[in-house]
Amino acid sequence: MGTGGLIPRIAGSHHGYPPNLGARSGNAEQFGGQQWKEQRRLLLNAIKTCMHEDFPDITNQLQARVIAGLTCVADWIGSGSLFDDPGTPWKSIIPEAVDAAGFVQPTLIKELSFRDIFGFEARSAQQMLIEQASEPGVYVLEAPMGIGKTEAALYAAYSVLAAGKATGIYFALPTQLTSNRIHSRVGQFLQKILASDSLHRSPLLLHGNAWLKEFELGEEGLPGRSWFNAAKRGILAPFAVGTVDQALMAAMNVKHGFVRTFGLAGKVVILDEVHSYDAYTGTILDRLVNELKQLHCTVIILSATLTDERRHRLMGTLPIPAKGLSPYPLITALPSSDTVPRESAPEHLAGNTVTVRSLEDIDEAFEEALARSEQGQQVLWIENTVADAQKTYAILSARTGGTDIACGLLHSRFIQSDRDALEEYWVSLYGADGSANRKERGRILIGTQVLEQSLDIDADFLVTRICPTDMLLQRIGRLWRHNFHQRPAEAVCEAWILSAAYGSAEKDPLKAFGMTAKVYSPYVLLRTLQTWAAINSLSLPGDIRSLLEATYEEKVESPEMLRHKADLRQSRERLERFALQGVAMGIAAMPEERASTRHSELPAVSLLLIKSLHIDREAGSTATLLDGQSIVLPSHIPAAGKKRQRELAAILAAQTLRVTEYAAPAEIDIKNLSWLQPYFYLGDKFHDESILRVAIVGDDGMLKSLNGGPASPTHTLSYHPRLGYQSIKSI
């Protein structure tokens, strides 16, 4: 019919995967032959006449992705309950259905000052970003931790929105934990800039569940379907806070990736905590930023730790040879109308002098952490893996038992309800509002990388496992963050780095660094050791730029280091090829669970944990949650029960976590999960999607299968609300 190859592909992609049309034509027998082709032609002509529209002229793949996303979401809305009665005139319902799905234009309060919104005047770096980021383009703010990058980005976004040059805001952060904390700050911001009757004064937290019952996105957004998932839907809202993974998948060839592309088009996209290190994520991120520019987005990139080379790659420009060290802080602006970036250097900022000590003896670090906490200090201890964090917590919590010292643990392997409660408790104690509580007792908070990013936490003393300079600086930035806190007299702004001897690490990094060498490149870890070898103290932010460039600059290497560098180069080339394969349009789309967005990421699955289960396919199954609450899950949902169905689905979603596939409970036949079908998307084996895992947590914390046997044939699995999920290989 003269539509070209992209229109059929778009029309057939509403389930998330593009159809495999092969070389078939419209009159192929698989599509009903010539008679059905003629009926389709008549239907399409009738629709075009009714809507006074024709097929769009699609000129490139990116445009096709946006139109595919628009078509898919329109299909979802059209399948909603408002259209159930074929006797009701459908045209008059369209505005109500679009509103019910959440696509309501926000009402913005114009001409608000920075002080009106945040209660204080903008600093130099904040004001410069606001002045530069006044139209679609790419803008990078490099500034130290605690300078107020979030407020600067939000006000710049407000200015672009107020000027009518954007349609919304998507705030992307590295982890779920960090996006929880930013959520409240963005919520306060929206309360200021939106009129009191505006629907979207509360930002949709992508991995939160409280708002799921508010909007009906049509059939695909119902409980039991894949886009009821809170981790996806917010990207379609005018204002959302979520993880960067959802944004990255807008540039990847994954299931419903084009819906995410549509969701981001025309918005202000804020990418927080962008680092130099991970080439794999960086490859996808570079692609995303380039596509966002073409989609007339305003991209604001926030970082404390970028090299010149990494910044230019993000912006799609070439670095200036032999330029020397760039200023720090630094704002780089590349409006869509320009081809050469503009750099502006805000005034130099005063900071902290931090004492640094590297050591190999973890027992000495244990004693020091205990001694500092006994003095009333707030100690932060950061490991690179969940397993190491759990081991450290087990030791320190045992040592502090029976004392006045509080000991806590934060990482990604808690069910959502436990994670939210732990996060709220510990971040409030270590945050800006915790001044009064700090005086009560000493504390030790142990965690993983979630503690280094976007959290407003302030420690008196830091112990950290060795990691690349980017992350090391982020972690040290948690020290003495607020000058209004009263600290114990013995407190010294000091960081201890659990490291390794360079000589042995160069020869055998896996033995020297342990699991850390599985998370970060041995070559980068060794370069970090070289850079930090002679450092006993540093000035923040003054030394940030020089430390970063020294870690990643080209230099003469030893034979062993050249070998490690070659390994890294091969690994990066392989990962980059895989990342680019993920954004290639000529191959079949990947399931979202298989689409890794991080260097060390392994395939993961969703796991629902409950205390007990009684299945009754007629009256409804009864599930007891880990907190003792029992809920009845009706098998048959009447029309009047749709709201309760959504509420139950949100409650169950809060009992889930993501775990690596190899360390998860064994998969069971999807037929045995039919009692969950009205409340969870169970997965699609035909497209190689992982199936939801479910396990029973016994009184002893050990996981069992639904039939009472071991949850896994290869691992001993357990869950504790303070320790989280654990997997120990048993065979």
- DSSP strand tally: 24
Number of helical segments? 25
Fraction of helical residues: 25-40%
CATH architecture of the largest domain: 3-Layer(aba) Sandwich
What structural class should be given to the helix and strand makeup? alpha/beta
CATH-defined fold name of the largest domain: Rossmann fold
Distance between the termini: 60 Å
Low-confidence stretches: 206-213
The major β-sheet equals: 8 strands, mixed
The percentage of residues in β strands lies in: 15-25%
The CATH homology group name of the largest domain: P-loop containing nucleotide triphosphate hydrolases
Report the principal-axis shape. Answer: globular
Mean pLDDT, all residues:
85
Rounded to the nearest angstrom, the radius of gyration is 26 Å
Describe this structure in words.
This protein has 731 residues and is an alpha/beta fold. The chain folds into three domains: 114-344, 3-Layer(aba) Sandwich (Rossmann fold); 352-540, P-loop containing nucleotide triphosphate hydrolases (Rossmann fold, 3-Layer(aba) Sandwich), CATH 3.40.50; 602-729, no CATH class. The chain is built from 25 helices and 24 strands. The termini are far apart. Mean pLDDT is 85; it is low at 206-213.
Topology:
Blueprint: H1 6-11, H2 33-51, H3 61-78, H4 94-100, H5 114-118, H6 124-132, E1 137-142, H7 149-162, E2 169-173, H8 176-193, E3 204-205, H9 230-233, E4 239-243, H10 244-248, H11 257-264, E5 268-271, H12 279-294, E6 298-303, H13 308-315, E7 330-335, E8 342-344, E9 352-359, H14 362-374, E10 378-382, H15 386-400, E11 406-410, H16 416-430, H17 435-438, E12 443-447, E13 461-465, H18 469-476, E14 494-498, H19 502-507, H20 509-513, H21 516-519, H22 522-532, E15 537-540, H23 544-552, H24 559-583, E16 604-610, E17 612-614, E18 621-624, E19 630-633, H25 642-653, E20 656-660, E21 693-697, E22 703-704, E23 715-720, E24 724-729
Parallel strand pairs: 1-6, 2-4, 2-5, 3-4, 5-6, 9-14, 10-12, 10-13, 11-12, 13-14, 16-21
Antiparallel strand pairs: 1-7, 7-8, 9-15, 16-20, 17-18, 18-19, 21-22, 23-24
